[in-house]
Amino acid sequence: MVSKTQIFLGKIALRLLPSLYLRSQLKKSNTTSSQNFFLTFDCDTDRDAEAAINIQSRLNKVGMRAGYAIPGELLRNHWDEYQQLLSMGGYFINHGYRKHAEVDLSSGRVYSTFTYRDVDDAVWQQDILDGHHTILQLTGKSPSIFRTPHFGEFNSPAQLQKLYIFLAKLEYKASSSTTPIFGFLNGPIYKEKNGITELPLSGSLRKPTQLIDSWGFIAAPDALGREQLVAELGDYLSKFASGKKPMTNIYFDPADIAQDEELLDLLTNFAPYSHPGYDKYLDAKMS
Q: Which residue has the higher pLDDT, 284 or 171?
């Protein structure tokens, strides 16, 4: 587990020399495989259910498979829609149980209603358990991959250590809950000492501490801008096309991009490099 000091110094290094990020991801990536692009979606509000189905339908046309992190409460409330994802090839990631975001009807903005950062350990642990049991009940299969709500809000070394210990007790295989600085310091995929594999989310190649997601570039009040997101994805795509294959782990909120034809076309261009999913990666490692 990295320390707070290592995280602080790592962020300074990336601000001074952003190229260090790509160099580290290439060095620790699987250079023998072209399938180094992972795509997932966080379905945090009611409006994401239909959007997720539309996106996976689009991905299916080019043979891409995505993972879906869905709070158990939303999964249950929209099961008619979400169960279709399984038949379409998608897979579920435990994202806790409680709905942790709402949409402001007047502005259309998404705001947080629940975060692990602000509650006692027993509360977030119960939320993970409730999410786990919901997926098991609805699908008949226990989930083995977890993602915390709200990236960056539960990322201190102490919080992550407690998270991994708890996930290990539940016999989870993996987590994808950390920000790009962890990928820089530890590698794009790494295993904690208790056996949990962590898959950090990827950062901008121009500003590596910036997570590439639809919240930061499209939906947040201080969003960096959709055109900048297009440019960031283009940066990664050009690296893959040139033969460089950094392990890349990107997620979006479905409703943010479901109607954006340019962004969807850009994502489907990653099809030749797209990995079939965290679950398939873990199965291959254990076989």
A: 171
CATH superfamily, with its number, for domain 4-11+31-286:
Glycoside hydrolase/deacetylase (3.20.20.370)
CA distance 49 to 43: 7
Cα first-last separation, the chain: 26
**Separation of CA 267 from chain center:** 15
The answer to whether 186 touches 2, Cβ cutoff 8 Å, is: yes
Is residue 30's pLDDT more than 80?
A: no
Please count the other Cβ atoms lying within 10 Å of the Cβ belonging to residue 97. Answer: 23
- The rounded distance, in Å, linking the Cα atoms of 93 and 84 is 15
Across residues 32-44, what is the average pLDDT? 91
Answer positive or negative: Cα dihedral of 175, 66, 260, 72.
negative
Q: Where are the domains of the chain?
A: 4-11+31-286
pTM: predicted TM-score of the whole model, two decimal places: 0.95
- Tell me the C-alpha distance between 91 and 173, whole Å: 15
DSSP classification of residue 257: H
Strand (E) or helix (H) holding 16: helix 4-16
Q: At 34, is the pLDDT very low, low, confident or very high (cuts 50, 70, 90)?
A: confident
- A 10 A CB-CB count for 250 gives 21
Burial of 136 (0-12, 13-18, 19+ CB in 10 A): middle
174 pLDDT higher than 80: yes
Instruction: Return all residues near 126 (Cβ < 8 A) that are at least 6 apart.
Output: none
